[in-house]
Specification:
heterodimer; A: 243 residues; mainly alpha; 9 helices; 78% helix; B: 267 residues; globular
């Protein structure tokens, strides 16, 4: 039995796609849905932008805003993460798509990794937009020496956030009365990312006198977090969605 | 013939089994003994904590709050360890399609409830102590922040337990979330510790070995730990039994509803 697309995948003896092929299929499915519906670009990114604006209303002083700008970027990311996860699993809950995938025999870990990859892509876009907004609205500058740290922080933090979001999104999706559980479960779990990513971005941007070398231990924390929740989430996702 | 409130004994005539009569009390000889032991040790704690132990040189009488504050957080940690181990047992014994062991699930849930309540007490009592000694109710140092996040994490766990569904579903779902919490807590602790460190260094479990508390004060602290541990065990016995009764009641309600539905069909 041939694979449905060009034969570059390593098929198992039964002809079903390999694990990574399945992850890629699911991730590309999610991104294709997004490209056709444009919910993230039309609703979530503007929401993130609005959040950055209303922070200014709440915090008033421009000097304060400049000092806390990295924290505000990540706060806006956290709130937008909740919306993104709701969306990512909302498309699965309609028509019982997630159940259909599981019944079709798709490995739960592949679903987890695939959805986490798609969520990561959306998060990276979101963070890039927030960074640009911070440069414009909060007068941040990116020194040349901090670019590597900045990009590494964005990548590692995104992986951790996507893992946690996908895990708890799987639990909170679908049945009515569960969606409100997502913020309560997710925010304490991503507290380490908020702490680490904010300190690392402060170091990268040179806010409040931080230097680039201060930031790398925090990146280490973010890596550990991403690995822990990547592995733990993949293992836990199956039992949680298989009710 | 009315079918709005069918007597459950009607089901016997139809050959449908009725669930066993529900036990009216969760007290047994074991809980009576434990309860008395708890009361006695609490009385000792009051006597030593408020009476016999001396006032601290720096904190003066405010140190007496610690005889309650420290035991409650120790017992809370123990309760969360019990939750984690029980969750592991639920998943291990229920692996591969076997039915989830509900007794372990009830222990996990009851222990989490008690742990959360004890953490809440710790935070409130600690805030009062902080007001007296530091002058502020709260500080964003490593230990306080981690404890606050611990509290919120287990509030989330308790919310997951209430999501509904069958008892088996609840058991499996809660066990997975309980073990994820075990993964989260060290990460949170490590990251907060990296971020801050102002809290008073641990004076009892000091790795260097020397105990910084006066003998009688240390004794009062250990009485406190014993008293609250006995209290916790007593709570666990009662709470798990009440949970079993709640589950049986829910099942019986379902049985009665099924009987009523079938009776509707026979009119």
């Amino acid at each position: 039995m041939s694979s449905p697309t060009t034969g570059t995948s390593t098929a198992t003896t039964s002809g079903s796609p390999s694990f990574w092929r399945m992850c890629w299929l699911i991730a590309s499915k999610d991104l294709r849905v997004e490209r056709r519906s444009r919910v993230v670009t039309n609703q979530v990114l503007p929401f993130a932008g609005v959040t950055m604006v209303i922070f200014a209303f709440a915090l008033d002083k421009e000097t304060v805003l400049e000092q806390v700008a990295p924290g505000l970027i990540w706060l806006a990311t956290m709130f937008s993460l909740l919306v993104l996860v709701q969306r990512a699993f909302g498309i699965e809950a309609d028509d019982g798509a997630l159940d259909a995938l599981r019944v079709a025999g798709v490995d739960a870990r592949a679903i987890f990794v695939g959805k986490a990859l798609a969520l990561s892509a959306q998060l990276l876009l979101l963070e890039a937009v927030l960074l640009v907004l911070a440069i414009v609205l909060y007068r941040q500058t990116v020194p040349a020496g901090g670019v590597v740290l900045l990009v590494t922080t964005l990548l590692t933090a995104t992986c951790g956030l996507a893992a946690v979001g996908t895990l708890y999104g799987g639990l909170a999706a679908g049945i009515k009365g569960r969606e409100t559980l997502l913020p309560l479960l997710t925010l304490p779990a991503v507290a380490p990312v908020l702490i680490g990513a904010t300190r690392a971005v402060e170091a990268a941007l040179g806010t409040v006198g931080a230097v680039v070398s201060d930031g790398w231990p925090w990146v280490g924390l973010l890596v550990v977090f991403a690995v822990a929740f990547g592995v733990g989430g993949a293992l836990a996702f199956g039992p949680l969605v298989d009710e | 013939m009315t079918t709005t409130n069918p007597d459950p004994t009607d089901a016997l005539a139809g050959g449908i089994p009725v669930s066993a009569p529900v036990v009216l009390s969760t007290g047994t000889r074991g809980t009576r003994v434990l309860g008395i032991a708890t009361i006695v040790s609490m009385a000792w704690l009051v006597a030593f904590g408020l009476g016999f132990s001396p006032a601290d040189r720096d904190q003066r009488e405010a140190v007496r709050i610690l005889y309650m504050h420290v035991p409650t957080i120790w017992v809370a940690y123990m309760a969360f360890v019990v939750t984690a181990l029980s969750s592991a047992m639920v998943l291990y014994l229920g692996r591969g399609g076997r039915p989830q062991p509900l007794g372990w699930d009830r222990l996990a849930g009851a222990s989490a409830e008690a742990g959360t309540a004890f953490v809440a007490v710790t935070l409130v009592v600690g805030a009062l102590w902080g007001r007296l000694t530091w002058g502020v109710f709260w500080q964003w140092d490593a230990r306080l922040t981690t404890t606050a996040l611990l509290f919120v994490t287990y509030i989330g766990y308790l919310a997951v337990r209430r999501l509904g569904g069958t008892h088996q579903q609840r058991a499996k779902r809660s066990a997975v979330i309980g073990l994820i919490a075990v993964l989260e807590i060290p990460l949170v602790h490590w990251s907060v510790k990296l971020w801050r460190s102002l809290h008073q260094e641990a004076t009892v479990l000091n790795t260097a070995g020397d105990i910084k508390m006066d003998g009688l004060m240390l004794f009062s602290l250990f009485i406190g730990v014993i008293a609250f541990t006995l209290f916790y065990v007593w709570l666990m016995l009662h709470r798990t039994r009440v949970m079993a009764m709640e589950d049986a009641l829910e099942d019986r309600g379902l049985d009665d509803a099924l009987v009523a539905r079938r009776l509707e069909g026979t009119i």
